[in-house]
């Protein structure tokens, strides 16, 4: 009865034909060893895969932290500079300061500025209406709302703006 569970394997070697007999338990042990070897290879491959993914994620995070410095917003060149602001004036109330470099004044910007008459025209046509003003202050863009209006001082703004030489 035991013989029917044995498997005969023949090999031809230098000394002739070798006949080996294996039992089902021998086959099971071989399959278990093969399974262990395959599982070890899979485990090693998974460790390598996860290590690569972790390294890639760390690289991506490092690059994303560097990007804000690389992608700094380039500010347009100023076309005018504020050289005086009177205390209590609309310009003072809006937050305009001496030294601010103007890059936008209502509809006037770096691309369409020709002379100070452009700003004067916008101010005259905007009395009582808020104007969007953008300046560069300490290297940063600062936006404010300035409403040209009559006040106790001279003009509608209470500041002096001079053109910047380009």
List the helices and strands and how they pair.
Blueprint: E1 7-13, E2 16-22, H1 24-70, E3 80-85, H2 90-94, E4 101-105, E5 108-109, H3 116-125, E6 131-137, E7 140-146, E8 159-163
Antiparallel strand pairs: 1-2, 3-4, 3-8, 4-5, 4-6, 6-7
Family: Belongs to the proteasome subunit p27 family.
InterPro entries: Nas2_N, PDZ, PDZ_6, PDZ_sf, PSMD9
Protein name: 26S proteasome non-ATPase regulatory subunit 9
Number of helices: 3
The CATH architecture of the largest domain: Roll
Question: Please, what is the CATH homologous superfamily of the largest domain?
Answer: PDZ domain
Intertermini distance = 106 Å
CATH class of the largest domain: Mainly Beta
Helix content: 25-40%
Low-confidence parts, pLDDT < 50 over ≥5 residues? none
Radius of gyration over C-alpha positions, nearest whole angstrom: 41 Å
| Overall 3D form | rod-shaped
Work out the number of β strands. 8
CATH topology of the largest domain: Pdz3 Domain
- Strand content is 25-35%
- Total domain count: 2
